[in-house]
Amino acid sequence: MAKSPAAEQFKLLELQAFDSALKALSTRLTQLDQDPRLPVLRSAVEETKAGAAEAVQAREVVKKALTGLEDEVGALDTKIERDTVRLNAGGLSKDLMALQKDIETLSALKSSKEDTELELMEELESAEAEVSTRQDALAEAQRQLDAVQEELGGLRAVSLEEKTKVSLEREAFAGTIDQALLALYQKTLDRRGVGAARLFHGHSEGSGMDLSPGDLAEVRAAAEDEVVYCPDSGVILVRSPEWV
Fold first, then answer.
1. Dihedrals φ, ψ of 230, to 5°?
2. Which of 141, 197, 206, 221 is the least buried, fewest Cβ under 10 Å from its Cβ?
3. Which of 62, 60, 100, 66 has the alpha carbon at shortest distance from 84?
4. Do the Cβ atoms of 16 and 193 come closer than 8 Å?
5. CA-CA distances (angstroms) from residue 237 to 20, 46, 228, 231, 233?
6. What pLDDT, in 10s, does the model give residues 165-182?
């Protein structure tokens, strides 16, 4: 059985306090990275982004249709103006009647297209309003995500700073412990998740359970400098005559 002075073994409790604090800080950092608000807010941003893109696409379809219709109306204006000039120039009655008929047909077509043009202008106005609404929703969703990320970033920075501080203090303190005992502790910590715990009035703080009478008798019989382990959790039990 490994041996180490009782005073050295007592240091393991303080070392464990450092490791427990580091474990808690690591857990805290993981919780911050996995904050349940993040996937909800990120999903909201993606959904509103898709909605904004759809609104912009719908607006562009209306704008393209309106531009095409404006070009058609412009072309009709050109034809009507050309035919009107020819009509005013005079000529054979038959030709003039044909020109007059063409002008009337073109004018009716132009009037119909202008009505459609007005409808498209109204549709475009509605589409512009929808784009604005969707973009405002996206901006708000992004603002909420940014606010939470900023909040979590601040908390993460504090936790990282604290973890660095505790790690340095732990490293310095570990340097004061007998290296053989420290190796036993580290091996137990890596295997069990806890390196050392107190044995207090027959209760193992490593397992959270009372030792059986037989196990407790063995611990009591062990020399003060012997390193003993919790039979249930496997961690090093730090004890004193007053605690046992």
1. -70, 125
2. 221
3. 100
4. no
5. 16, 53, 6, 10, 10
6. 999 999 999 999 999 999
Task: Give the separation between CA 29 and CA 152, rounded to whole angstroms.
Answer: 9
Class of residue 227 by CB neighbours under 10 A (exposed 0-12, middle 13-18, buried 19+): buried
- Look at residue 29 and tell me whether its pLDDT is greater than 80: yes
Rounded distance between C-alpha atoms, residue 173 and residue 3, angstroms: 20
Domains annotated for the chain, with CATH where assigned, are 6-29+178-238 (no CATH), 35-164 (1.10.287.1700)
Q: What is the pTM of this model?
A: 0.76
Pure H helices in the chain: 6-33, 37-88, 93-174, 179-192, 213-221
Smallest Cα–Cα separation from 243: which of 194, 200, 188? Answer: 200
Q: Any idea which residue has 């050392």 for tokens?
A: 196
How many C-beta atoms lie closer than 10 Å to residue 141's C-beta?
21
pLDDT number for residue 244? 59
